[in-house]
Design a protein that fits this description.
The complex is a heterodimer of chains A (about 550) and B (about 525). Chain A is mainly alpha-helical. Chain A has a domain of about 220 residues. Chain A is about 70% helix and about 5% strand. In chain A, the strands form two sheets. In chain A, strands 1-2 form a two-stranded antiparallel ribbon. In chain A, β3 and β4 form a beta hairpin. In chain B, strands 1-2 form a two-stranded antiparallel ribbon. The longest helix of chain B is centred in the last third of the chain and has 33 residues. About 0% of the residues of chain B have low confidence. Classes of the chains: A mainly alpha (about 550), B mainly alpha (about 525). Chains A and B meet through α5, α6 and α7 of A and α18, α19 and α21 of B.
């Protein structure tokens, strides 16, 4: 079955931020020639970036409204990822590479998350409310470059989630590295250079492994036809790799090796223990909006990649490795939670809590059951809502106090009540309080995994208790107890912070009570994804 | 066996060599006439040498197009043998001659107004450059051991002189001398290897050798096998020296650092491309089965893919590791070019149509990105008078365009999409993986680890340019030949990164060679 072009919408969506980047570049290049003052150029690039992110958000909403989540239930579509809004054309004939984008229930969830979080990150990058004399604040340094890079990053992220051609996927995947390196390295904290190069080296190591695995799959694939009907000896088309090819008896390389190469590449991004050490450095040193994007979107690419590539293209090897995935998921949950207990820096604590929460995703998807996989992807979405809120919260206090030591505060609830409330809500959502969104996804992961990995699930559940412990302890140390006199004049959240935080808080509550908008969107696609694996595993 | 054309008939196929030699003679005559430096010398001599190179390039393009549209070479379109069997004229020769000439053209453009070249003896400089071009062209198409040796020596002799051209700088003279010493030893060893091969198999012609080996009983005995192994290893040493492969790379950093920057740019690409062409031709011509020859080859007796593979792994690893500690940009790029020779050797190891395709493609891409990087180094050098990495701190805010160009080249050298360097790496890895088997996979893994290591030192330059506060404040004046060249090289580096269909077609055409 061929996916013919049905819509240009996704292409517009992916490249809208890039267009904004080009405009910002033009503005920055022409500014000195037209003798524009620097503040004018800075403001112009902020407006352009906001516009780019807003247009993307609107386009995403259109895609969401036009998306038919019941498509896979149609009989003739069984077994295929039911892609919609497809654009499909030959890109480079010499290597049988196509430009092939489309969304199914899994991708559209991630695209929505990307558009939303990127918009919030651009909002959070405005200097609105930052004291006028703070010239060193990241939002006032090299503004055109910063905004242009954030737009490039958004395009690359959207591209990763929409690509259905493996090569295109890889190009977008790598394209993400460059802006991230500069965003951390130029606008980051004191140890930014170390953090930036560490991030770059780790992710590059992963992605070159993916490159080898990708080439291996390419040469093992059967001959087929490109979308324009021309003959192709091999293919990068992920749908064809998944549906028309059987890699269980690859001649070139052992399929298990290929699976491992891909898995390690994605595991570094998640990040999965023991590949997680880049994350605390990168998250802590990055400026707040970049931490937001890192935690909110970039980490999801790891698990998305495993579901999109490992699960569909190499199902037998996935079944072979599922115990391993589950074990590492549980290590992530419990180990990172203990590490959180020991943290003194608020941002580092949040960073490690991300590692812990991504463990639930691994555990849920390793179970190969419907509730497990729904819980996993819903956890990806929820973590993408909660952790940006947490990083924004850490940014709020850092902008005011210029440090993030948990022990350096105390009794803040009295001076900044609104902020305290927001922190409390986000902490509760993150630790999985019933009624907030984190609870539903974690519960689904446990329900899905319990029947398959009973002992592991019980061990993992202890992580929830530790999580509650470190959040509540942090809450107590920062906001309760006697007031630290140093901070008695602390100002409460301003309107920029409200604009970025309240939408996320609203989503936490609404999706905690009524998760169906997201679950309905993806559950049929995820069933199609996981059902063949479950059948093959004899479950 | 193809019937070679006679020398007179062959002249029609050797237009580039004739043109550059004519240009060289013209320049030497001009040099005799214009003893004292005049201001117009600065543009006249580059104009002559650049014109000769451009004319040769134009002919190659025309010839390539002609032969692609109708099989001009021979009935099968694979090529023909000219100059009584000394030189091959096939797509590979056309493509690699064009690469060498492009590199030389870039070297000429960079030399315009370069302060690192003395004002005197400009005509001789450009004349020697053209002789070097002729040598590279012949080397890229030589199909006879004697021709390989003569062409290699021509390239080497010109390179020695040009590396040590700036007699007022002791580093330049020192580099020239070191280069001579290494080069002399390497070519002597190679000649000894050739004599061993000739003694064993009784032929100097690559095609003849191929058949002689197939029907030879010299390999039946252990001493014969050892002698053959030694012979081929010695020839490999000579060729390895030309492409700066470990352990024959020692001359490279000193020569690159000491040479005038415009010539370093040329040296890092031109002779290397020619060296790879002859390396492919040598091993393909002798070892792999051509039409009409029996299955017996040396493969079983001499594990040459293994030998080349080990050299490749060593070359890239050593080049990358040592590059990490370099503070001089020219030295850093010298070690990086050693590492890149290691990458390209992976394509030679893979062999076959797609292996050679990957080599041709990678060398093209390497030409753009490496010459581009040297052009930026040259621009900074002109302004700051030094290649130290400290000169680059804060370049991103001082000269944003120049820094952006260098960043593009460095990303491309690392092999990140969407730059052409990534496509080159993709082709190399693809050629290796398509072979299958553990050995090729291990080599690919070594290549991958090296790509990651290389990021570390390329990122050092990025860090200096963008992440560090400028130690200096004055901008670098880039509005000169070097800046123009850097821009010209950045365009294909980016365009081919996004759409390389034409490059792929060209590489696949040029990977056909005579056998």
């Amino acid at each position: 079955m061929e996916f013919q072009t049905t819509s240009w919408l996704l292409t517009c969506l992916i490249f809208a931020p890039m267009a904004a980047m080009v405009l910002i570049g033009l503005l920055a290049a022409l500014g000195p020639l037209l003798k524009l003052p620097r503040p004018a150029v800075d403001h112009g690039s902020r407006v352009l970036a906001l516009l780019g992110a807003a247009v993307t958000l609107v386009l995403t909403a259109i895609v969401w409204l036009g998306f038919d989540s019941s498509m896979p239930r149609l009989a003739e579509m069984q077994g295929y990822p039911h892609l919609q809004f497809v654009q499909h054309a030959v890109w480079i004939q010499a290597f049988n590479i196509e430009y092939f984008v489309g969304v199914d229930g899994l991708s559209i969830t991630m695209v929505m998350l990307t558009a939303l979080i990127s918009f919030i990150a651009v909002l959070a990058s405005l200097p609105w409310g930052i004291p006028k004399d703070d010239h060193k604040h990241f939002s006032r340094r090299g503004v055109p470059g910063y905004m242009a890079l954030i737009m490039l990053l958004e395009s690359a992220m959207l591209g990763v989630f929409c690509s259905m051609d493996f090569f295109l996927f890889y190009v977008f995947w790598e394209l993400m590295l460059l802006p991230m390196y500069f965003l951390i390295g130029i606008w980051g904290g004191p140890r930014r250079e170390y953090a930036a190069i560490k991030f770059f080296l780790y992710t590059l190591a992963g992605s070159v492994l993916m490159l080898l695995a990708m080439i291996g799959l390419y040469y093992a694939s059967d001959e087929t036809r490109l979308i324009d009907g021309s003959y192709a000896a091999h293919t990068f088309d992920m749908v064809k790799l998944a549906v028309e090819n059987d890699f269980s008896s690859m001649a070139l390389v052992s399929p298990k090796l290929v699976w491992l190469g891909l898995f390690i590449a994605f595991a570094i991004k998640i990040p999965m223990f023991p590949f997680h050490t880049w994350l605390p450095d990168a998250h802590v040193e990055a400026p707040t909006p970049i931490s937001v994007i890192l935690a909110g979107i970039l980490l999801k690419m790891g698990t998305y990649g495993i579901l999109r590539v490992n699960y569909t293209i190499l199902p037998d090897e996935t079944i072979w490795a599922r115990y391993g995935i589950a074990v590492f998921g549980v290590i992530n949950i419990v180990y990172a939670a203990f590490v959180c207990m020991a943290q003194r820096d608020l941002k580092k604590l949040i960073a490690y809590s991300s590692v812990s929460h991504m463990g639930f995703v691994l555990l849920g998807m390793a179970a190969l059951t419907d509730p497990g996989i729904n819980g996993a992807v819903y956890q990806m979405w929820n973590h993408g809502i909660i952790s940006p809120a947490l990083f924004l919260i850490a940014g709020v206090i850092y902008d005011r106090a210029h440090h993030r030591r948990i022990d350096g505060f105390g009794g803040l609830a009295r001076t900044v009540p609104e902020y305290t409330g927001l922190v409390g809500l986000a902490f509760m959502a993150s630790l999985g309080l019933p009624g907030l969104n984190g609870f539903i996804s974690e519960a689904l992961c446990f329900i899905g995994a319990f029947s398959v990995f009973t002992v592991l699930t019980i061990v993992a559940a202890s992580g929830v208790i530790i999580t509650a412990a470190y959040y509540l302890w942090t809450m107590q140390r920062m906001f309760l107890g006697p007031l630290n006199e140093q901070y008695k004049d602390l100002t409460d959240v301003n309107w920029r912070e409200r604009l970025t935080l309240y939408p996320l808080m609203a989503l936490m509550i609404v999706l905690g009570f009524y998760p169906m908008p997201i679950l309905d969107l993806m559950k049929d696609s995820l069933h199609e994804l996981v059902a063949p694996l479950a059948r093959a595993a004899g479950m | 066996m193809r019937v070679p054309l006679s020398s007179i008939d062959s002249l029609a196929y050797a237009v580039p060599e004739l043109v550059v030699c004519g240009g060289a003679i013209g320049l030497f005559l001009l040099a005799a006439a214009a003893r004292r430096p005049r201001s117009w010398h600065g543009w006249l001599f580059p104009l002559v040498s650049g014109g000769a190179i451009l004319a040769s390039l134009g002919w190659l393009v025309w010839f390539g197009l002609e032969s692609a549209s109708r099989p001009l070479f021979s009935a099968d379109g694979q090529g023909l043998v000219i100059f009584s069997g000394l030189v091959a004229c096939d797509p590979l020769a056309v493509a690699f001659r064009a690469l060498c000439l492009l590199a030389a053209g870039a070297g000429v453009l960079l030399s315009v107004g370069s302060p690192s070249l003395p004002k005197t003896q400009r005509a001789e400089y450009h004349g020697l450059l053209l002789v070097l071009c002729a040598g590279m062209c012949l080397l890229a198409s030589a199909s006879h051991l004697l021709m390989i040796y003569v062409a290699l020596e021509t390239v080497s002799l010109c390179s020695y002189l040009l590396v040590g051209w700036d007699r007022s700088r002791s580093r330049s003279t020192e580099a020239g001398l070191k280069y001579v010493l290494y080069g002399g030893v390497a070519s002597g060893v190679m000649l000894f290897g050739m004599s061993l091969i000739y003694g064993l198999f009784g032929s100097l012609d690559l095609q003849g050798l191929h058949q002689a080996i197939a029907g030879s009983d010299a390999l039946a005995t252990a001493p014969g096998r050892w002698a053959a192994l030694l012979g081929f290893a010695f020839v490999l040493a000579g060729l390895g020296y030309k492409v700066a492969a470990v352990p024959f790379h020692m001359w490279c950093p000193d020569a690159y650092e000491g040479a005038p920057t415009p010539f370093t740019a040329l040296l890092s690409v031109g002779p290397k491309a020619a060296g790879f062409a002859v390396l492919m031709r040598f091993f393909w011509g002798i070892f792999l089965d051509g039409p009409g020859v029996g299955a017996a080859t040396l493969d079983a007796d001499i594990p040459w893919p293994l030998l080349l593979g080990v050299i490749s792994a060593l070359t890239m690893t050593l080049g990358n590791l040592v590059a990490i500690v370099q503070d001089n940009l020219k030295r850093l790029l010298a070690y990086s070019s050693i590492a890149h020779a290691g990458y390209v050797l992976m394509g030679v190891v893979a062999g076959g149509q797609d292996g050679f395709e990957s080599v041709a493609l990678y060398m093209t891409v390497y030409l753009f990105m490496n010459i581009g990087a040297f052009a930026v180094v040259s621009a900074v050098d002109r302004s700051a008078g030094s290649e130290d990495i400290r000169q680059y701190s804060g370049l991103g805010s001082r000269s944003p365009w120049l820094a952006l160009l260098l960043a593009i080249f460095l990303f491309s050298l690392t092999g990140l999409p969407p730059t052409a360097g990534f496509i080159g790496k993709l082709y190399l890895f693809a050629a290796l993986i398509a072979r299958g088997g553990t050995w090729y996979l291990v080599l690919a893994l070594v290549g991958i680890v090296n790509s990651v290591i290389s990021l570390f030192y390329y990122a050092r330059v990025l860090k200096a340019m963008y992440l560090e506060q400028p130690a200096l404040t004055e901008p670098v004046k880039a509005a000169n030949a070097a800046g123009v060249l850097a821009f010209l090289m950045a365009v294909p580096t980016l365009v081919f990164g996004l759409f390389w269909q034409p490059l792929g077609v060209l590489a696949s055409w040029s990977s056909r060679l005579l056998h």
